[in-house]
Amino acid sequence: MAKNNLKATQREMVLNYIQEFGYITSWQAFSDLGITRLSARIWELKEEGYLFKKDRIKRLNRYNKPISFDRYMLVKEA
């Protein structure tokens, strides 16, 4: 969490979410955290030394069309 209980950064929010739920997707980042560029935050965390596993998830959308998205899991903390 952020120092002195100040507002958490988006990177901290992503890490906290993964630690609580085990993984995060771009939809979860947007709907639960208000983060629209999850892949950018993951890249920044990788630059800090964190290691992630990424799975490609395939589903059908509400129109029964195939979609795919990434699910990130933390493998190693910095």
Question: Would you kindly provide a written description of the structure presented here, covering whatever features stand out?
Answer:
- By secondary structure, the chain is of the alpha+beta class.
- It contains three helices and three strands.
- The protein has helices at residues 10-21, 26-33, 38-47, and strands at residues 24-25, 51-60, 66-76.
- Strands 1-3-2 form a three-stranded antiparallel β-sheet.
Key traits:
78 residues, alpha+beta, 3-stranded antiparallel β-sheet, 3 helices, globular
Break the fold down into its secondary structure elements and pairings.
Blueprint: H1 10-21, E1 24-25, H2 26-33, H3 38-47, E2 51-60, E3 66-76
Antiparallel strand pairs: 1-3, 2-3
- Largest beta sheet, briefly? 3 strands, antiparallel
Strand order of the largest sheet: 1-3-2
Class derived from helix and strand content: alpha+beta
Number of helical segments with 4 or more residues: 3
Give the terminus-to-terminus CA distance: 15 Å
Helix coverage percent: 25-40%
- Could you spell the SSE succession in H and E letters? HEHHEE
- Uncertain runs with pLDDT below 50, 5 residues or more? none
Count of DSSP E strands?
3
β-strand amount = 25-35%
Summary of the model, kept short:
The chain is an alpha+beta fold and 78 residues long. The protein contains three helices and three strands; from the N terminus they run H-E-H-H-E-E.
